[in-house]
Each structure stands twice: as structure tokens, then as C-alpha cells.
């Protein structure tokens, strides 16, 4: 099948649109998804194409948006709710954690929750402390809900389609900085990437870099720089924080015996902590060096650009971490 | 005009007008500097068009009373008496800014004038307002909290919980809904089952001060005075001010570009023009005093920009300071 070079926002839009065409039960709701065309333009033109029944502008009511999505999903619809940015998902935390992730188990399988909550994530451009979260690990803490975060337009399409078709609740986070970045995306309306399947974004033999989302870009840039110095990095994009593709990580680690974990988020109780713990529990015999973590600094993000940048990870910090264990 | 508004002296009224012009020109300057990339960030929410609401309501307070608002906060901070130079320095992300350059446009606080800040999570500051009012109730100090609330913010849980709490505890707080007809691109009629937002007060058993013309300083001031004194004596009060923001919510706001007629309708009743006309009516010989306002304001803004530009940026030490007390 043919491929198109399109930005991630268009890949997401294609996935969503195709799934709405494919399944009548799929609909979108959220703040500014209709008349405004979506804050991030992922639902551009949807109101005209699908009408108000299936493209529902909501009040600024995150708790109700997610809670109603859970109920609608329990009752047989397949809502794709948009939370403008992940920062506002904290207002819907209870609906996500205590309901979306629990009702199936709690009522012994009587219900399922085929719901997707899409939320833009990531910091940058001085958005400041309350508007700069990348809190995927917190949401991935709880069993019962999946969490995916794509790093390329093709992954975005295939992963979002998988999320919509799956019968489990999925929190799907989309890195704001990646929305405009282009990549080749298959036209195939059945291009679905399986949930929980990670991807080797660059093969290598000296160090495994485990990452997701925006971390993939920094890791690939770092791998390029390191390659010039004769250091070969394998970049593992887990794509899904839950379910996590541990076999893929382990396979890579057995080869390299070294690992750096790269994430956009905070260091405490983090993605990096989890990967490091898993490796030392299961791969201790293969370990030749301490696991290194690259993350944001353990501070809320400030407004002033000079100090905001100090707090954030980038390719150079990844390069430095790799060099420490090589 | 009622007797209440006559209690303001000529000098005070000129000062009020000066403040409204100052806020307008400050916001215009911010827009210019943002477009020139001297002010950074992805967010710049301007207060143009809403000056009469902010200045009118704050004028009804005593200096010891409190103000808190959302992210559209520059004008409100200035109206409460924050130093214009330091507000501008915050816009630049400088160390001398009111929030040390760490808060930016959406987070302007100046505790020295009891401006408790702008808050960027919609509705998030409402329970804080209730808590600050609880302090006054607890200590019986007679202070009042004036909490600005966007029309869009009336639809999340924070609103409901904060208003109800203020009612059951009889807290000295005035909830001032700034109904500028939209939350981002969503009209109030689409977002609120009851679009007459002041009526929410009834549901909480709270005193409803109704709707006021938010483009008219005198109208806002008069109702705000009643509401503030009611809150001081009895408990929470709610006021809805009908106003308009002249700028888009943000740069991607295409809907706002389409609202030409509506905008013109409000701009004909621009708060500055309404105020000037009333002043001329009240004091036929006021022209020379009015004429001095723009140059005085221009000088203040120029000085503020210079101060901001010349101020130092925060350091690595600032990055880790104040995470904890
Ligand atoms: C909890 C939350 N949801 C969404 C947003 C995004 N957002 C920022 S401002 C805004 C509109 C708020 O409208 P309104 O309360 O009417 O205030 P106005 O901008 O008109 O002053 C939205 C949806 C947010 N900041 N916080
Ligand atoms: Mg509004």
C-alpha cells in the first residue's frame, strides 16, 4: 500500500477519521474539538463531516468528559475523549483511575470500557509549572488502563487505531512538540500496530537506550553523535508504558549489557525507575554497568527560558549518560 | 448615577481613569513585545476590553482586602496596585519580576498588595479564594476576598465545590464572574445550561447581585461596593459582569477573527470611552486633566519596559529555590 509523508497531527487525524467511518459507535468529545477544529487541529473538519452527534464540544469539565466517556463506553459506545492537555487530566484523575481502570474488575467482568482518552503532553516554550507536565508514569501506575505515547507519525496512526479498536480503556498521550513533525504513514485504513508492542528505532550493540515519546528524538540524535565516536546505541521505543514490552527491552539488553533510560518526565518514581528495577530484577547476570537515567530535573518548570532549558533533558545529556557507562 | 459612586472624589476618578488607560496600554505593549519575541512563552491572555470590570470591582475594596484571579491577570494585578515595572519584568521572565521570572504571564502574584495571583488551571483558584476567606472568618479580621471567575470556569467541579463551601461556611468572598461571552471559542450559551450565570447563586443559597454592565466602571463599582460590604457583613455574594475581550484567546483563535460585528458593538461602549464621557458630563472643565493621562501612562510603560529589559535573568540557583519552604 501507498504511504504519505504527513505530520503527526495529520496521522492522528487520519486514524481517528478512518475509525469513525469504520464504526458508527466511535465518536469524539472534548473542549474545542468541534467548532474550533481541536486545540491541536487533530479533529479539523470533523464537525462538518460528522455533525454534532458525533463531534461533541463540551464545557470546561474534565471530570465529566472522562466520567461520561467511561459511562458511554460501559453502555456500548466507543468514545474518544480529548483532554486539551494532559495537565488538565489531573482534574479527571479519579474518573480515569477509580472508574475507567476499575469497573471491569470490580464488577467481575460484567462491563468493559472501550474508551480512549487522548491528551496532548509535554513541556517546552515556557508553558510554566502547571502546563508543562509529562506525567505518563503516574497514569501507568494503575492496572486496568493502557497507556500509549507515539514517537512517529506512523506509530501515531497505528497505535491510535489499535487503541480505538481495543475493548480496554486507553490513555493516549500525544507529544505537543511532535505534532508538526512529518514522517511516512501508510494509507491502509487497517494499519493497526498491536498494543504493548515496542519498536527498535535504531539497532546497535554497545548500549541500549530505552525511551518513548519525545525521548526517542533525543536518543536518536545522541546515537548519531555517539556513532561518530564509534559507540553503537540501540534505541528501544517502548511505545506503550502499559502494557510494557519487557521482552523487547530484555532482548536488547542481553546483547548490549548496558542501559540508559531517557524520559521527558521527572526522575522520582519514574519510567526510568521502573525500567532500572525490571532490569536488575530479571537481567542482573547480564549487567555490566549501572543503569543510567536521563530525565527532567526534580523541580517544577519555571517560566524563564534560561532556567527552563537547564531543567530539561536533551540529546547532549543522553550522550553524557552513555559515556558514563561505556 | 447613584449616591454611592458620588463618594469618589474628582482626583480619585481621574486616578481610576488613569489606571484603566494604564492597563489598556500595558496590554497593547505586551502584545507588541510578544510579537517581537521579547516576551516569550506560548500563552498571553490580554485584558483589553475588560478594564472597567477589574478596576471597578477592585476600587470597591479596602487595601487590606484580597484579590485572586485566573491567568488573564496582568490588568487585575495592576489594578490591585502591583508595581507595573515588576509585572513587566515578569512578562520578560526576569529575576526582578513579581514572581521572580518563574511564573510568567499567567502567574502574576504580589502578596505585598494582597494580590494572590493568577492561576492557569481553569477554576483552580476558586477553592483557594474560599480558603483565604476562611482565614478572615477564622480570625474575624473583617477582610474580604474578591475572586474573579471566567464564564467558562463556572462549569467545572472547582466552581461548584468552592461556591457551595463558601455558602455553608458563610465566607466573606465575592465571586465576580467576568462573562466575556466565551471560554476560548465556546459561547456561554453552548457551555452553560443556565446562561444567566448570576443565577447560579440561587442554587447555593447565596446572595445574587445580578448582572452588571461590565463596560461601565460606575456600574461595576456600584454593585461591587454592595457585594463587598454584603460579603464583609454576611457571607458570599455573586456578581456577573457582562464584558468582552478584544483579543483572541490565543494565537490560534480563528473564531474570534470572525466576530467582527459583535466586537464593534462592544467597542462602541469601550470602557475608556464610557469613562471619559461620564467624566466630561460630571466635570465640564476636566479636559486638561484627561489630556495628561496618556503621556503619563506612556512614561510609566516606557520605564517598565526599560526596567524589564535591563533586569537580570534568573540563575541556576533560582531554578532549585523555593521548591520547599
Ligand atoms: C482545567 C483546565 N481545562 C482547560 C484549560 C484550557 N483553557 C485555558 S483558558 C480556557 C478558557 C477559559 O474561559 P473563561 O473561564 O471564560 O475565561 P476567559 O479566558 O474568557 O477569561 C481553557 C479551556 C485549562 N487551562 N484548565
Ligand atoms: Mg470567558
Main interface: chain pair and counts: A-B, 35 and 46 residues
Shape of chain A: globular
Which consecutive residue ranges of chain B, at least 5 long each, have pLDDT under 50? Answer: none
Largest sheet of chain A, if any? 7 strands, mixed
Count of all domains of chain A: 2
Major sheet characteristics of chain B:
6 strands, parallel
CATH architecture of the largest domain in chain A: 3-Layer(aba) Sandwich
Number of strands of chain A: 14
**Cross-sheet strand order for the largest sheet of chain A:** 3-2-4-5-7-6-12
User: Outline of chain B, from the CA principal axes?
Assistant: globular
Strand content of chain A: 15-25%
| Radius of gyration of chain A (Å) | 19 Å
Element string of chain A (H = helix, E = strand): EHEHEHEHHEHEHEEEEHEEHEHEHH
Structure description:
- The complex is a heterodimer of chains A (326) and B (325).
- By secondary structure, chain A is α/β, with parallel strands linked by helices.
- Chain A folds into 2 domains: 3-186, Thiamin diphosphate (ThDP)-binding fold, Pyr/PP domains (Rossmann fold, 3-Layer(aba) Sandwich); 199-325, Rossmann fold (3-Layer(aba) Sandwich), CATH 3.40.50.
- Chain A contains 12 helices and 14 strands.
- Chain A has helices spanning 8-22, 46-50, 62-74, 93-100, 103-106, 136-139, 153-165, 215-228, 246-256, 271-282, 305-311, 315-325, and strands spanning 3-7, 26-30, 55-57, 78-85, 116-121, 146-148, 170-175, 182-186, 199-202, 207-211, 233-237, 240-242, 259-262, 292-294.
- In chain A, the strands form 3 sheets. A 7-stranded mixed beta sheet of chain A has the order 3-2-4-5-7-6-12, sandwiched between helices. In chain A, strands 9-11-10-13-14 form a 5-stranded mixed beta sheet, sandwiched between helices.
- In chain A, helix 10 links the parallel strand 13 (259-262) and strand 14.
- In chain A, helix 3 packs parallel to helix 4 (93-100).
- Chain A is globular and about 55 Å long.
- Chain B is an alpha/beta fold and 325 residues long.
- Chain B has one domain: Rossmann fold.
- Chain B contains 14 helices and 8 strands.
- Chain B has helices spanning 3-6, 10-35, 51-59, 74-79, 84-91, 125-139, 157-168, 188-191, 200-203, 217-233, 260-267, 271-282, 287-310, 316-320; strands at residues 66-70, 115-119, 145-150, 173-179, 182-183, 186-187, 207-213, 237-242.
- In chain B, the strands form 2 sheets. A 6-stranded parallel beta sheet of chain B has the order 2-1-3-4-8-7, with helices on both faces.
- In chain B, strand 5 and strand 6 (186-187) form a beta hairpin.
- The longest helix of chain B is centred in the N-terminal third of the chain and has 26 residues, at 10-35.
- Chain B starts with a helix and ends in a 5-residue tail after the last helix.
- The mean pLDDT of chain B is 96.
- The interface between A and B is large, with 35 and 46 residues.
- The structure holds thiamine diphosphate and magnesium ion.
- Thiamine diphosphate sits between chains B (72, 120-122, 150-153, 180, 182-184, 249) and A (31, 60, 62, 84, 88, 91).
- Chain B: Keywords: Oxidoreductase, Pyruvate, Thiamine pyrophosphate.
- Chain B: GO terms for molecular function: pyruvate dehydrogenase (acetyl-transferring) activity.
- Chain B: Residues 19-316 form the Dehydrogenase E1 component domain.
